[in-house]
Amino acid sequence: MVNISLVQRRTMMNQAVRMMWALFLATAFGWGGSVTAKVDSSEVTAGDSIILTIEAVGSDIEFPDINTIGDSPVLRRSEVSSMGITSINGQNKMERNRRVLLTFTPQKEMTIPPYSVTIDGQKLQTNPIKIKIAAPQTVPKSTISDKFTLDMVADKRELFVGEPLLVSVFFGESRQADLMQVQYQKPSFGDFVVKEEEPEKQYRKGKYLIHELRYLLIPKHDGNLTIEPSRAKVAERSRRKDDIFGNFFDTPRWSHIASNAVSINVKPLPGQTDLVGDFELNENIDTTQVKANKPVNLTVTIQGEGGVEDFNGLSLDIDGVTIYSDDAKVESKLVGDQLIATYEKRFALIADRNFTIPSQSFSVFNYKSGKIETLKTKFYQIEVIGGTVAPAVVQSAKPKSQEVGKNTFEPSPNKKEGNAGGYPPWVLALVFVSGVFAALAALKLIPKLKFKKPVNPANESEALKILYPHTGKDPIVEEMVRLLYARQNGDKSAVIDKKLLKALVNRYMRKNER
After folding, report:
1. Is residue 124 included in any domain, yes or no?
2. How many domains does the chain have?
């Protein structure tokens, strides 16, 4: 008979307990786990997103870190976890379920590769999934349903090159629609320049909530042009029951919607013009009488319906006049259904003598009248006070006839007529030749003498005249000229560094003297 010691009995009991726990865990959690992968759609239109769901069952689950799927980055990641008990063949089983949802946008047809998921210490792989990309229809018809509408409207179907065109896109959702997300794709405007793109407007119209987007376009060239449809991918809320635990989850059910295309007939201009639109020209000049070296300020404004961004025909070049001008200020905004544009340019003209501001003309094609019109600036005569005056021609007056009297000098009887003072001819010739040589010497000597009044660098008007010709060569000079010009116009906030001004004036004075 075999005797079993107390130690052996305890060892056998421990082994039995471990076997019972192992049997319990096997019953509770099952031996091993499972993993699957699926997508919400295996065939999508180019540019649409896909949701990849990796679902794992087990007690200890570790998902891989996935940042890209094929060549496409992961746009969004979310995770759902739950636990439950199921009964299979009369046996209860506890399971833990974890799902990772990865959203990405495939760029081409591809196969989602298998991914390794560690479950209860074992590495399991997901199944690969093939994705097909369906090309969008070239010109789809407007999609209209009880839940969604998408339409595109142009305010005119025939216009000239350069004439503004207003295009509106209307997306309508009914009150019965339960939207989770809308991915909107605006129309293609390849043949047009987009001048304005207004923010979305929302309002109720019947049973629909309307989202309106407006675009102001200008055609680049003539011909029969087509504005391609706008598109939208709409996700409706869908309640899906979980297969394992019976829970419900909100999932998107995607559908596609497209607007109508719009055809536009663009006519060529009847001739080459500076502007296209309905404009008027206004001018403002602060004075036509100014002190020497003080600025005359002229502002020219062109305003009306149309585009002025490409207009660059306004410039001034007057001999003997220093002209300073800022870049033109151009603004455009959508007022109602019209593009209202403003072009404004300012000039400061400085001179030390009288001058004239010539008139300038610009051609405008008015698409409302269908005619080419002319805009013309005014002619201004500017009087400069205290400046340089051109020397006048002075004619000597004829001497009055001399009367014989006490103060009348009579020629000496010893002096011959025609001999001034009775000097010999050779003396007069010598004096004449000496005068000629003296005059020539003076002409060479005078420029070397410093009779010219020195320029005072503190005089801002003089400094502006010296520095202005060099604004395009030195950014420091350009900034100083801007400050000087602002001071001339009464801007007290413009602060001048006197030391820097003096240094700049002295430097460019020396360059001008060379």
Report:
1. yes
2. 4
DSSP 421: G
Residues with Cβ within 8 Å of 57's Cβ and at least 6 positions away in sequence, in order, are 33, 34, 35, 95, 96, 97, 119, 244
Question: CA-CA distances (angstroms) from residue 42 to 111, 240, 456, 470?
Answer: 10, 18, 83, 68
| Neighbouring residues of 371: CB distance < 8 A, sequence distance ≥ 6 | 365
φ, ψ dihedrals at 474, nearest 5°: -135, 115
pTM (whole model) above 0.70? no
Sheet containing strand 129-134, edge to edge, reads 43-45, 129-134, 110-112
Which residues, in sequence order, are CB contacts of 222 under 8 Å at separation 6+?
161, 266, 267, 268
Q: Is the pLDDT of residue 359 over 90?
A: yes
Cα(254)–Cα(238) distance, rounded to whole angstroms? Answer: 10
pLDDT digits (tens, 9 = 90+) for 328-341: 888 888 887 788 88
pLDDT at 288: 93
Domain final residue pick, 107, 134, 161? 134
pLDDT at position 326, please?
A: 79
End-to-end CA distance of the chain: 132
* C-alpha–C-alpha distance, residues 102 and 40, integer Å: 11
Measure the CA–CA gap between 29 and 95, rounded to whole angstroms.
6
pLDDT level of residue 283 (50, 70, 90 thresholds): very high
Mean pLDDT, to the nearest integer, of 180-185?
A: 85
pLDDT of residue 419: 47
| Domain residue limits at 107 | 29-134
Contact 297, 346 (CB under 8 A): yes
The rounded distance, in Å, linking the Cα atoms of 77 and 51 is: 9
Q: Kindly report the backbone phi and psi dihedral angles of residue 511, in degrees, each rounded to the nearest multiple of 5, phi listed first.
A: -65, -40
Collect all residues with Cβ–Cβ distance below 8 Å to 141 and sequence separation of at least 6. Answer: 258, 260
Judgement on whether residues 200 and 293 belong to the same structural domain of the protein: no
